[in-house]
Amino acid sequence: MRWGGYKAVVKLLLETGKVDVDSRDKDSRTPLSWAAEDGHEAVVKLLLGTGKADVCSKDKDGRTPLSWAAEGGHLAVVERLLQEKAEVNAAAGGYNGGRTALQAAAGGGHLAVVERLLQENAEVNAAAAADGGRTALQAAAGGGHLAVVERLLQEKAEVNAAAADYYGRTALQAAAEGGHLAVVERLLQEKAEVNAAAARYGGRTALQAAAEGGHLAVVECLRRAGAIY
Asked: Contact, 10 vs 47, CB < 8 A?
C-alpha cells in the first residue's frame, strides 16, 4: 500500500473481508498512516470508508496520519482526515523528533496546509517533542520557510521558545544553522534572543550553529546583533 498507492489492489484486499484495516507494523504504523504520508488520497478514502481505520492512531513516535499528511503537504488528504475528525492538536511524541500536524506542515514549508490547520484552531505554540522536537516556528525557521514564519508570527508564535533538551534549537538557532539569513533577520526584528542557551544535549547557540555551517553572512548579522563567542 505504501509504495504504489494501488487503489484497485487495496479495494480487492478489502473486499475479501480478511484484512485487518488497522493492523500495525513494527513501528506501530497503520495502512492509513502510510497512505497519508505518501499522499494517496484514493487509498485513504478507501480505508476510511470501511469505518474501521482509526483516524487518530499514533505510531511509536506519537505521529498521527494527519501529522504525516501535513508533513508531506498533502492538502487533499489533510482535508479528508479533518472531515473524519482527526485530532488537530494531538501532542507530539516525546522521542525521535515527534511532530504535531502544524509543526510537521511548518517544517515542510507547506503554507496552504498551515493555513488549513490554523482554521481548525491548531495550537501555534504547542510543545515540541523532548528529543529533537521543534515548535512550529522553530521548524519553519530551520527550513528557511519565510512565508510560513511570517504567518506563524501573525498568530503570535513564541519567538524565544526554548530549545528541546535533546538536539533542540530555538527558532533563531535553527535558522542560523541552515544559513537562512532572511529568516534570521526577521526573527531578530521580533526580538529573538541572540545568545539563547543551547540545548542540553547536542545543542548550539545561534552563533555556533552559523559558524559551524560556514554561513558567514549569518555570523556577521548575529555579531552585529550582539552575539558573543
From this structure: yes
Cα–Cα distance, 62 to 72 (Å, whole number) = 17
**Fold assignment, 1-123:** 1.25.40
pLDDT exceeds cutoff 90 at 98? no
Grid cell 504547542 is found at 126
Q: Which of 133, 202, 200, 201 is nearest to 171 (CA)?
A: 133
The segment(s) of the chain belonging to CATH 1.25.40.20 are 1-123, 131-228
Q: Is 1.25.40.20 the CATH number for 131-228? A: yes
Please report which helix (H) or strand (E) contains residue 108, including its range. Answer: helix 101-108
pTM score > 0.85 for this model? Answer: yes
Which cell goes with 7?
Answer: 487503489
Beta-bridge partner residues of 201:
166
pLDDT at residue 3, rounded to an integer: 47
pLDDT exceeding 90 applies to what percent of the chain? Answer: 80
